[in-house]
């Protein structure tokens, strides 16, 4: 079965690059969602295998999406320049792997593969 990933990223070009990169490596991309409302709408329709979350989505934080993912046992990574994402996005982000920004392809792919094994 094909693995799916929800991308939550408010920067359009970054989201498109991530989608293309992940699809090239056999992932089915849900979204990308640019805000909390759109991400929750995607999750209402289908739960992904894993998720990749930008912490700061313009004028809102991704916290509510992370809470929904955790409640449904969907593992996620964050993609942020913040060293401690939980300081900005709340305790729900504590312990989530951070692939950083800018995102290195090998690091991202390795992190998502690791998350699928849990």
TrEMBL record:
The modification 4-aspartylphosphate is found at residue 54. Residues 4-116 form the Response regulatory domain. Pfam families: Response_reg. InterPro entries: Bact_response_regulator (IPR050595), CheY-like_superfamily (IPR011006), Sig_transdc_resp-reg_receiver (IPR001789). Gene3D superfamilies: 3.40.50.2300. The keyword Phosphoprotein applies. Keywords: Phosphoprotein. PANTHER family: CHEY SUBFAMILY, STRESS RESPONSE REGULATOR PROTEIN 1. This is Response regulator. The lineage of its organism: Bacteria, Pseudomonadati, Pseudomonadota, Alphaproteobacteria, Hyphomicrobiales.
